[in-house]
Write a structure and sequence with these properties.
The protein has 343 residues and is α+β, with helices and mostly antiparallel strands. Helices cover 38% and strands 20% of the residues. Bound molecules: zinc ion. Zinc ion (ZN) binds next to loops.
Length: 343
């Protein structure tokens, strides 16, 4: 007479046998052994249960046998899933070429940023990305741009709802927001570059974007002069543009420097001879710079007159446009792979 132990043994045996089954032939043999319509083990068990007299016995063993059948079916289909080819006679053609996954690469602006960071890092500058969500004090007030100062009109600002301890929050309009933060944190001598994104509410055209990439740089020490500024600019620009460029300073206005300058580089496309890129002047406008305004040092809490320093802020997109001869700023963030994949 059939027993519960025998039914359990059937499952155990099935599991062990499947584990050592490797070929489709073995699998099919085993399947017939269990599920065969006439001589299968399960059929035999069900048949012998049918002939039992004791109704209670019949019911218990019947339930066990049904469970065993289900469990074995699951074991068999698991084996089939694992050995996918078992369910089909198709054999994969291993000589077919595979499908290569698309491999991305670093965005050209990021490449340029990393190149610049390496150059400045080698010259002893620390690198800080800083926060993109800033409060008005660090973005404007501390940099000598008080409320209602006309300079704020130059930087159409995205204001963000909520405040930072009572101070309005903005998306930083320049990476200069880190100047006073770093000055408060470190004592001079101080050399730092701040690469990152900045945001302005611009009407977008071939040379304006609402999100752009800047690199702020500044040096604070005793006796820093314009000579130091031009040295660092000339060295950095020559390295990144891979040619010996000249740097020219023209007076320019930025509230956080005094005196302030627009710095031009000699055109690398025509070596200063005049071409379309430099609008036939031989010079290309590169960045704004100057000597750090005493008000900025006061914001940082430095002793008046003790330190001097220079600061510059360059647009990475403008630099990339010059370096790679690109005429439309919108290409950088347009997401067109035909453009991006050229770098
Ligand atoms: Zn030129």
């Amino acid at each position: 007479m059939i027993t519960a132990d025998q039914i359990q043994a059937l499952i155990n045996h099935g599991r062990t046998a499947l584990a050592s089954t490797e070929t489709v032939e073995q699998f099919e043999q085993l399947r017939d052994h269990y599920f065969g319509r006439k001589q299968g083990e399960l059929v035999k068990i069900l048949r012998s249960i049918q002939h039992l007299d004791n109704v209670e016995h019949k019911r218990q063993l019947g339930a066990l046998a049904n469970n065993a059948k289900q469990e074995l079916q699951q074991l068999f289909s698991a084996w089939q899933n694992q050995h996918h080819h078992a369910s089909t006679t198709l054999v994969p053609d291993v000589t077919l070429p595979g499908i290569w996954p698309t491999v991305g690469h670093v965005h050209p602006l990021r490449q340029l940023q990393e190149e610049l960071v390496d150059i400045f890092y080698a010259m002893g500058f620390m690198v800080m990305e800083g926060n993109e969500l800033e409060n008005e004090l660090y973005c404007f007030e501390y940099l000598n741009i008080p409320p209602h100062h006309p300079a704020r009109d130059l930087q159409d600002t995205f204001y963000v709802s909520g405040d930072d301890q009572g101070v309005k929050r903005v998306l930083r309009t320049h990476t200069s927001n880190m100047q006073v933060r770093l000055m408060q944190q470190y004592t001079p001598p101080l050399r730092a570059v701040v690469p990152g994104r900045a945001f302005r509410n611009e009407a977008i055209d071939a040379s304006h974007e609402h999100t752009f990439y800047q690199m702020e740089g500044f040096v604070v020490d005793e006796n820093i002069s314009l000579g130091n500024l031009t040295y660092f600019l000339k060295t950095a620009m020559s390295r990144v543009l891979q040619s010996d460029v000249q740097v020219r300073l023209r007076p320019g206005y930025f509230p956080y420097v005094e005196p302030g300058f627009e710095a031009d580089c000699s055109c690398t496309h025509c070596a200063g001879q005049g071409c379309a890129v430099c609008k036939y002047t031989g010079w290309v406008e590169m960045l704004g710079c100057g000597l750090i305004h005493p008000t900025v040092f006061a914001s940082a809490g430095y002793e008046p007159g003790k330190y001097t320093g220079f600061a510059f802020g360059m647009g990475l997109m403008r630099l990339a446009m010059l370096k790679y001869n690109i005429d439309d700023i919108r290409l950088f963030m347009g997401g067109d792979f035909r453009f991006i994949d050229q770098f």
